[in-house]
Amino acid sequence: MKKLKHLLTLSLTLLLSACGFHFANDALSQKVFNEVQLDTGDKYSDISMAMKKELRLRGVTLVEQGNVPILRLNGVSTGDTVASVFKQGREAESLLTLSVSASLQMPDKKRYPINVQVSRTFFDNSRAALAKNAEQRTIWNDMYRQAAQQIMIKMISIQQQY
User: Fold this and answer.
1) What structural domains and CATH numbers belong to the chain?
2) Cα–Cα dist 100/143, whole Å
């Protein structure tokens, strides 16, 4: 019985590796452009810092100028809407939304728009105001990181088309 399990596991592994199976988020492990110019209005904004970190994490060199693709962060909008309320009428849960508009300009001056949106729910505990602010800041930082990852995935798909 033990040999049968090993044989089944081995055959399943060989079958999956031979058929070209890959994970859905495998795009993040692919190499994006070697060099990119990052153009943003505020180079110290949360999205700019998250994008720089994500680009460096993927091995992309940030350059000031040259004949390289230009990633422009055009705008960021945030939203906070009430998702549920307590019996007393106080806000219980809110939906945090982050929308990022960007564009990728290739060296031949062709532009590709990139729009991403990230949403999260946040439980508003009014009894722990200090902890609430720290938790909300952590959620926003995670949302900026996730938006930067989504921009990277879209950049990889543009690179594959280019």
Assistant:
1) 35-161 (3.30.160.150)
2) 11
Helix axes 129-161, 46-57, angle to 10 degrees: 50
Q: Which amino acid is at 145?
A: R
Separation in Å, CA 72 to CA 96, 105, 159, 160:
24, 8, 16, 19
Q: Which residues contact 51 (CB under 8 A, 6 or more apart)?
A: 38, 40, 71, 73, 148, 151
Query: Which residue type, as a one-letter code, is found at position 79?
Result: G
Its sign, for the CA torsion 66, 70, 74, 76, is negative
Residue 33 has phi, psi (to 5 degrees) of -50, 150
User: What is the per-residue pLDDT across 63-98, written as a single tens digit (0 to 9) for each?
Assistant: 998 889 999 999 999 999 888 887 887 777 889 999
Q: What is the pTM of this model?
A: 0.76
